[in-house]
User: Fold these one by one.
Assistant:
Number 1:
Amino acid sequence: MTKKDLFFVEDYEINPYTMMIKPAANNDPRFLSEIFEMNGRYLSSDSPFDIVRRSCEYFGSSFNGRRQGTKQLIGITHKAPIIVDPHTSIFLFPTASPTSPHCIWISHDYVASHERNGSDETIVTFQNNESHKLPVSFYSFENQLSRTAMLRIKFMQNMKRMENFGRLIHNQASEQKGPYRIGK
């Protein structure tokens, strides 16, 4: 499959290769989303929001649960980035209100660079060297990128804290406190 190939996919699930999900740029009403992966492009009859929502459920949570998690971790409620899957570190951020028909979802992992292109457009280059002009201001894109980095850092800190706590409990349980005595 080459980068130019475009395939239709039903019930797409976000995965570690997903770079971006955006509203389809064609005039065909059957296709609502265009999905960009590291080595492929797909069309879907589901909206970007429906794909994100279903993927959250696939990975064991609701979209609202993921949004609540973001609010709890970093206090963001408007255009909140979300952790779609904590085990494979899939962190996405929206470029607009998530339910907006113009919202594009970007995977934090794959953004290599971004640059201003006028007042309301940003050129994003992904890890595979593909560049895309997105209808979002540079400031807004940069803010969303930073919020997602904050979410990632806070989540990783909490995971590290739990790992350290687990090691502490394990070490305490395996230490001998003295000789065992049976009876009197």
Number 2:
Amino acid sequence: MTIWPGVLAYRGGLSPAKTHAHHSVQVLIARRGEFVVADALGTEVACRATVIPADVAHAVLQGVVDGEMVHLAAESDDGVELSRTVRRPAFAGAWAEAGAALLVDLDEGQWWADGLPYARSTVKPMRHPALAAALHLLPELIAAGPVRLRDVAVSVDLSESRLAHLFSAELGLAFRPYVRWLRMSRAIDQIALGQTLTDAAHAAGFFDGAHFTRVCNKTFGLSPAVLISEMTFATDSTRSRFVQAATTVRTG
């Protein structure tokens, strides 16, 4: 599993999950077999891929032994654009139609998350030096607790409105959700380094382990406990921290 601002991507076995909702756009793609998903009305659809909009109740009745699960921040450019491809957000049939469209340009052995426009943009040089300065400051600021756009803007000598615009325009993600994903990424990094859930939560600026768990569950439909109990950790040279699945993970 990899996590970076706005994106969480997992590759491996994906198990069923009871009806739930989370504040992220979820993509499921089977490398072998098919998923069976159900909407709040109980309509069941078998499909190789599905796009489930944020905050929509859904269940995964059948998982796969090899697949890809991607969560996108609902406020990110990628999340917004992908949500627009789901014609009827509450209906499983529309999720499967949007998923089928993703498979058209997906080559054998290619991972869908690797082609995300937002994911690619994170490695490009920033056009505005003040934004680069703000991104450099944030990892230090989040450990101290609440981070306010006003304070960051003052630190980089910009107005709040200008800095807010730069986050959305150049990162594809607004300031507040960017900070939220950065906190979760920092906490998972700390867990990977052997910290307890509580210590990792504090290091990322959450009030406590319970706060981190609530935010993680609401965003991904996955608890930090799943990351701890079912995954092993190793370094990824391309994106700070990489989490390898040790067993099949719940689909969120």
Number 3:
Amino acid sequence: MAAPRTYHHGDLRRAVLSAALEVVQSDGVAAISLRDLARRAEVSHAAPAHHFKDKAGLLTAIATEGFELLAASLATVSADTAGRLREMGARYVEFALDHPAHFEVMFRPQLLHGHDPELAAAKERASRALHSGVEDLPAGRRGPDSRRTALAAWSLAHGFAALQLSGSLPVMDDDPAEAFRALFDDHPVAEVP
């Protein structure tokens, strides 16, 4: 009788996350299947469920990682950078273009475990980073409600990134982050009352 095949994987969690990101990038979120990811990682079909419980758990882990990466990217913009909010928007665009699968999953709350504490903490870190860019504006440029200014800045960066990823923007000679900076300078969000 042949010995049963044993599965050993150095970092199964990372392998499944990486495989899932590849699937999202190539085929979209709907194509995610824990069974298929197990096959790709060459482990038993139950192994991914051990780490993520279900598809929503896997997608929650991807979204959490995405918000952590986004917060880290935004945090690299120094507080004394001129045009800090504009630069944070450009970093947001760069993040979306560098991590399109994360970006795709992060903003699909109906697919996630919304009350996951790690997800909530990562979202909060990213939100705080963006809000810090607004808080650094002179009081007169923040408008009466800095939350609304932050929402306007986020909407501009997010919309630009989503349009760029979908191929809906006209072909530009500029680097997308540079094009965003020019757009921001032409229509500064921070001047909206």
